[in-house]
Design goal:
The complex is a heterotrimer of chains A (293), B (384) and C (317). By secondary structure, chain B is an alpha/beta fold. Chain B has twelve helices and 16 strands. Chain C is globular and about 60 Å long. The chains are: A mainly alpha (293), B alpha/beta (384), C mainly alpha (317). Chain C: Keywords: Cell membrane, Membrane, Transmembrane, Transmembrane helix.
Chain lengths: 293, 384, 317
C-alpha cells in the first residue's frame, strides 16, 4: 500500500512539476503569472486525444502535433496579450494577470465548443503496458512521466546555464534593459520563453491524458491552480524548486488521501503555500526576498 | 500596432453599444398569442438550462431532449409549444436571473429546469411565490418537491433509485463489505452518497472505507489504491458519469474487478464511450434503459441520434418526457393559463411516457417503477 | 401604473449589480494601500454562512445577522491581515486566493454545520420577510398597485441601494482624509511612507480588514437575497470575477470599481441571446481591453478630462 501510494504520488507529482516548470519559466523571465498556462496544457491534451483517437496517428506524432499546436498558442499569447502590455506606462502587475485570465476563459470555452463538454478518453496501446513486481503493478506510463519530467528539468537547467540562448534568457530575466543594451535580442528571447513554456504544457497535457485517461475542457483550471501553488512552494522562477515543489505536492495530496481525509485534498496545496509564505516567503529554493512585481 | 488596438477598441465599444440596444429591443416580442387559434393551444414554456461551463454536457442533453419532444408535439397538432431557453452557466444567481426573466414574461406558462439542484433550490421558491409551475428534470436531491405547491420533478430521486439497485446487487453477489466513493463538492453526488450510506447501514453491510473526490480531478489512483487494499465486495460510487467513467477505468486498470453500484447521474451511454471495457460491471437503477426493446425507446434513440449525432442519455430522456407531461397537462387544461395548467399538471396520473408509467404524488414527486440495469460486455442490459 | 415600470427581472439584476459593487469595492480598498487581495470570495462566504446560520438557527433578525456576518469577516480579515503584511504583490494575491479556496473546502467538509455541498436552504429572504412584516402592520403591496414579487424585489433593491450608497460615501470620505492619504502613500512607496512616520502595519491591516468586512457584508446580503447558498457560490471563479470587476473598470479610482461591477454584471445578461458564445466574447473582451487600456477603462486622467469638459461647459469657477 505504501509503495503503491508512493508511485501514485510520484506520478501525480511529476505531472504537477512539468506544469509548474512552464509557469516558473515565464515568471522567471517576465515576472508575470501566466494564468492561461493551465488551458494551454488542456489544449495540448486535446490535441493528443484528437490525433490518436480520431485520426489514429501514432503516439510520437501526437506528441509532435501537441508541441506544435501549443507552441503556436504560446506565440499567439505572447504577441497578442503580453507584448502589448510590455514597456507601456502605467501598466501594473494586474494587467497581464487579467489579460491571461481572459485568454484562459477564451480557451476553455472555445475547446468546450470544439470538443464538447464531457471527458474524452485517451486510448493508446502504450497506456496499457505494465510490469509486475511482486504484487505491485507499475505502468510504463508512470515511469515515462517521471523520466520525462526529470529530463525536462535537467535539460532546462543545462540549457539555461550552458547555452548561449539560455544565458541570454537569464540575462533578460535579470534585467531586461541591460540585456538589450548588451546586444541580447530580448524580444526574441521572451517569445522563445513563452513558446518553450507552452510546449512543456503541451507535453504535460498528453502525459496526463495517457496516465489518467481523461481529458476535459475544465482540467486546465484545476491543474493550473495547483501549478500556481507549486511555484510559490518551490520559489518563483526556480527550475529545481518547481520540480521539487511538484513532487512534494503530488506526494502530500496522495498521502493525505491514503492516510487522512480525502475531502481536504484540494486545500492542501494552498495550506502549504500559506504556511510557507509566512515562514519563508521566498519559497523552499528561492534566494530572493519576496517582493512585489 | 497601436493603431490596430485603438481601432479594435473603437470597434469593441460600438459592438457593446449595439449589443445593449439589441438586448433592450429583443425583449419585446411581438407574437403575442397564448390563445387558442384553430383548435391548437399555443403556449410558451421557459427553460433554464446549464449550457456553458463545466456541466454543460448535462444541459446540452436536456435541451436536445426538449427540442426533440417539441418538434414531435408540434407536429402532432393539438398543442403548439414554444421553448424559450435561457442559460444559467451552472450558477445559482444566474439561474435565478434567468428564471426571473422568464417568469416576468406574462406569456410564459411554466418552467422546466434549472439543471442543477443548487440552482433549483434558489429558483423554485421564487416560482412558487409567483404561482408558476416549475419542473426539474435532472434534480434528484432530497427536499425538492417539498419546496412548494408549484414545484414538481420527473427525475426519480436517489432515495428511490439507489436502494433498489443496491438490494439487487447485494442479492446476486452476496456482498458483505462495501467501499464508498463520492464527489463531496457536488449536491447531486453528495445527496446520492447520503442515501447510499443510509441504505448500506440499513442492509447491515460493512463499510470498509469512504473516499471522496472533487470536481475537475483527473487522478483517482490514491483513493482507488486505498479501496483496493480494503478489499470490498462491492463499490458504491456516487458520481456523475463524467467522473464515474474515469474512476471505473482507473479502477479496472489497477485490478479492482468488483462491481460498481452507481446513482442516477452515473447512467449514460457516455460511460461506455469513456471507459470502454472497463465499464463492465456497473449497476445502476434508472427509469431510463437505452437498450430496451420498447418501440418508443427504439424510435427515440433513432431520432435523437439522427438529430444530434449521439445516443441519448437519461437526462435527455427525462427532459423529453417532461415536455410530453407538460403537453399532456396543457391539453387537459384546455388553455394556456398558469392556474389551470398547474391544476392539470398536479393531477397527472398514469402518464405513459418514454420512461414508463408516471404519476405525481401529492407533493409533486415522482411515482414510477425503477429498472435496474448493468453493463455487460460493453452494453447496458437488464439486471438479472 | 407604477407596476408597469417595475420589472422584477430588472430589479433582480440591479440587486446583483449592487452586491457586486460592494464586492468590487472590497478589492479596491486594500488595493488603494497597495495590497492585491483575491480573498474576497472567501470572506464573502464567511459573511454569508455566518449570517445565514445565525438567522436560521437563532431566529435573529436579518439585519443583526448581516452585521454579525460582516463583522466576523472583518475580524478574520484582521487575523489574516497581520501575517500577510510580509507578502506583497503577486505573492499576496496567490496566498489570498489560496485562503479563499481553503475556506471553501472547509465549507464543503464541515458538514455538521454547513451541510456540505448541499448548501443551506431556507435562509430568510430579505424581501419576503419585509413583505410579511408589512402585512403584519396592515400594509398590502396591492395598496400601491404592486404585485407581491414586485414589492419584494423593490424592497430588496431599495435596501441594497441605501447600503451601497452609504458604503461609497464612506470610502469616498475616507479617501480624502488622513487615512486615505496614508493608504495612497503606502501604495506609492512603502519605505518612504514609513520614514514619514506613517504606521504601516496599522494602515495596511486596516485597509485589508475593511476589504474583508465589505466582502462579508456583500456575502451576507447575497445569502438573504438568494435564500440559498452553497460552497460553490464562493469558488475560484467568484474570486476572479470580483478581481476583474475592479481591474476592468479601473483600479485607481473608486468609480472604476463601480463601473466595472455594473458593466460586467450586465454583459452576460445582455449577451444572453448569444448565450453559447458569451464567455468566449467575454474572454476576448478582457484581452483587448488590457491591451488598449491596461489601467482599466476609467483612470484619473480620464476623469479629470471629464471634469475639465464639464467645467469648460459650465464656464464658472
Amino acid at each position: 500500500m505504501l509503495l503503491e501510494q508512493f508511485i501514485n504520488g510520484m506520478t501525480l507529482g511529476s505531472i504537477y512539476a512539468i506544469v509548474a516548470l512552464g509557469f516558473t519559466l515565464v515568471f522567471g523571465v517576465l515576472g508575470i503569472i501566466n494564468m492561461a498556462h493551465g488551458e494551454i496544457f488542456m489544449v495540448g491534451a486535446f490535441v493528443g486525444v484528437m490525433t490518436t483517437g480520431v485520426l489514429g496517428w501514432p503516439l510520437w506524432l501526437a506528441f509532435v502535433a501537441s508541441i506544435v499546436v501549443t507552441s503556436i498558442l504560446g506565440y499567439l499569447l505572447e504577441t497578442f496579450t503580453l507584448r502589448p502590455l510590455r514597456g507601456k506606462r502605467g501598466v501594473s502587475h494586474l494587467a497581464p494577470l487579467i489579460s491571461t485570465i481572459g485568454v484562459s476563459i477564451l480557451l476553455e470555452n472555445l475547446s468546450h465548443h470544439l470538443f464538447g463538454a464531457g471527458n474524452k478518453p485517451f486510448r493508446t496501446e502504450f497506456a496499457e503496458m505494465s510490469i509486475e513486481i511482486g504484487s505491485l503493478t507499475i505502468y510504463i506510463v508512470q515511469i515515462v512521466i517521471f523520466v520525462i519530467s526529470i529530463i525536462l528539468m535537467i535539460g532546462l537547467s543545462i540549457w539555461l546555464s550552458k547555452t548561449k540562448a539560455g544565458k541570454a534568457l537569464r540575462a533578460t530575466a535579470e534585467n531586461l534593459e541591460t540585456a538589450s543594451i548588451l546586444g541580447v535580442d530580448t524580444k526574441k528571447i521572451i517569445t522563445l520563453t513563452v513558446i518553450i513554456a507552452s510546449a512543456m504544457g503541451g507535453i504535460a497535457g498528453i502525459l496526463v491524458g495517457m496516465a489518467f485517461n481523461s481529458v476535459s475542457p475544465q482540467m486546465g483550471l484545476a491543474i493550473g491552480l495547483k501549478g500556481l501553488a507549486i511555484i510559490i512552494l518551490g520559489g518563483m522562477g526556480n527550475v529545481k524548486g518547481a520540480m521539487v515543489g511538484g513532487l512534494i505536492l503530488g506526494l502530500s495530496e496522495t498521502f493525505l488521501v491514503a492516510y487522512g481525509d480525502s475531502g481536504y485534498r484540494d486545500a492542501i496545496a494552498f495550506i502549504m503555500i500559506i504556511v510557507i509564505l509566512l515562514l519563508r516567503p521566498q519559497g523552499i529554493f528561492g534566494s530572493k526576498i519576496a517582493e512585489g512585481r | 500596432m497601436k493603431g490596430i488596438f485603438q481601432k479594435s477598441f473603437t470597434v469593441m465599444v460600438v459592438l457593446m453599444l449595439f449589443l445593449l440596444t439589441a438586448c433592450s429591443g429583443s425583449s419585446t416580442g411581438d407574437e403575442g398569442s397564448t390563445n387558442t387559434d384553430g383548435g391548437t393551444i399555443q403556449a410558451k414554456i421557459g427553460v433554464v438550462s446549464y449550457l456553458t461551463g463545466a456541466g454543460a454536457a448535462y444541459g446540452e442533453a436536456i435541451t436536445n431532449g426538449l427540442k426533440l419532444a417539441q418538434s414531435e408535439i408540434n407536429e402532432q397538432g393539438e398543442v403548439n409549444i414554444d421553448l424559450v431557453i435561457e442559460d444559467s452557466a451552472g450558477e445559482a444567481e444566474q439561474a435565478l436571473s434567468a428564471a426571473q426573466k422568464l417568469m416576468n414574461d406574462e406569456e410564459i406558462l411554466a418552467i422546466i429546469g434549472p439543471t442543477l439542484s443548487t440552482e433549483f433550490f434558489a429558483v423554485a421558491p421564487e416560482a412558487d411565490l409567483n404561482g408558476i409551475s416549475i419542473m426539474g428534470t435532472s434534480t434528484t436531491a432530497e427536499g425538492i418537491p417539498e419546496i412548494g405547491d408549484y414545484v414538481f420533478r420527473n427525475s426519480i430521486p436517489e432515495a428511490l433509485a439507489i436502494p433498489t439497485a443496491m438490494e439487487k446487487a447485494v442479492e446476486r453477489t452476496g456482498a458483505k463489505k462495501v467501499a464508498l466513493i463520492y464527489g463531496n463538492d457536488d449536491v447531486l453526488t453528495k445527496s446520492g452518497f447520503d442515501t447510499m450510506k443510509k441504505a448500506a447501514e440499513e442492509m447491515g453491510l460493512e463499510i470498509v472505507t469512504i473516499e471522496t473526490f472533487q470536481k475537475g480531478q483527473s487522478d483517482y489512483n490514491a483513493q482507488l489504491t486505498k479501496i483496493k487494499n480494503a478489499n470490498p465486495d462491492l463499490i458504491l460510487a456516487s458520481a456523475l458519469y463524467n467522473e464515474g467513467a474515469v474512476i471505473m477505468d482507473q479502477a479496472r486498470k489497477m485490478g479492482i474487478e468488483v462491481p460498481f453500484v452507481g446513482g442516477n447521474g452515473f447512467n449514460s451511454p457516455q460511460v461506455l464511450e469513456i471507459a470502454g471495457e472497463a465499464a463492465n460491471g456497473l449497476i445502476v437503477a434508472t427509469p431510463w434503459f437505452g437498450e430496451s426493446e420498447d418501440p418508443k425507446v427504439v424510435e427515440f434513440n433513432k431520432k435523437f441520434e439522427e438529430a444530434y449525432g449521439k445516443l441519448p442519455d437519461q437526462f435527455a430522456a427525462q427532459a423529453y418526457d417532461a415536455l410530453y407531461i407538460y403537453a399532456d397537462a396543457l391539453k387537459r387544461a384546455g388553455e394556456a393559463d398558469r392556474e389551470l395548467f398547474h391544476e392539470a399538471l398536479a393531477e397527472t396520473k398514469n402518464f405513459e411516457g418514454l420512461l414508463g408509467n408516471f404519476s405525481f404524488d401529492e407533493i409533486g414527486d415522482v411515482v414510477m417503477d425503477v429498472k435496474v440495469v448493468e453493463i455487460k460486455d460493453g452494453k447496458f442490459v437488464e439486471f438479472q | 401604473m407604477l407596476a408597469d415600470f417595475i420589472n422584477p427581472y430588472h430589479l433582480q439584476i440591479a440587486s446583483f449589480i449592487l452586491i457586486n459593487i460592494l464586492l468590487a469595492i472590497s478589492v479596491y480598498v486594500p488595493l488603494s494601500s497597495g495590497q492585491l487581495s483575491l480573498g474576497s470570495a472567501g470572506f464573502m462566504g464567511v459573511g454569508a454562512y455566518t449570517s445565514a446560520l445565525l438567522t436560521i438557527h437563532f431566529d435573529l433578525p436579518i439585519f443583526v445577522g448581516v452585521l454579525v456576518g460582516a463583522a466576523v469577516a472583518g475580524c478574520l480579515g484582521i487575523i489574516i491581515g497581520i501575517p500577510s503584511l510580509r507578502l506583497s504583490g503577486v505573492y499576496l494575491a496567490i496566498a489570498t486566493l489560496g485562503l479563499g479556496e481553503v475556506i471553501r473546502v472547509i465549507f464543503v467538509n464541515w458538514e455538521s454545520l454547513t451541510k456540505g455541498s448541499i448548501g443551506l436552504t431556507g435562509i430568510p429572504q430579505m424581501g419576503r420577510e419585509l413583505l410579511k412584516l408589512a402585512r403584519n402592520v396592515g400594509i398590502e403591496p396591492a395598496m400601491f398597485g404592486l404585485r407581491n414579487n414586485q414589492f419584494v424585489y423593490l424592497m430588496v433593491f431599495v435596501i441594497l441601494l441605501i447600503l451601497v450608497i452609504g458604503t461609497i460615501w464612506f470610502v469616498f470620505r475616507q479617501q480624502n482624509s488622513r487615512i486615505g492619504r496614508s493608504f495612497s502613500s503606502i501604495q506609492m512607496d512603502e519605505k518612504a511612507a514609513e520614514s514619514m512616520g506613517i504606521n504601516i502595519t496599522y494602515f495596511k491591516v486596516l485597509s485589508f480588514s475593511q476589504g474583508a468586512f465589505l466582502a462579508g457584508l456583500a456575502g451576507a446580503l447575497f445569502a438573504h437575497v438568494m435564500g440559498y447558498i452553497s460552497p460553490s457560490d464562493f469558488s475560484y471563479h467568484r474570486a476572479v470575477e470580483i478581481l476583474i470587476f475592479t481591474v476592468f473598470g479601473g483600479s485607481e479610482v473608486i468609480i472604476g470599481s463601480i463601473f466595472g461591477a455594473i458593466f460586467l454584471t450586465l454583459i452576460p445578461e445582455v449577451l444572453r441571446f448569444v448565450s453559447e458564445y458569451r464567455y468566449i466574447i467575454y474572454g476576448i473582451m478582457l484581452v483587448i481591453l488590457m491591451a488598449v487600456r491596461p489601467q482599466g477603462i476609467l483612470d484619473i486622467h480620464l476623469l479629470s478630462k471629464f471634469k475639465r469638459l464639464k467645467r469648460s461647459k459650465g464656464g464658472v469657477r
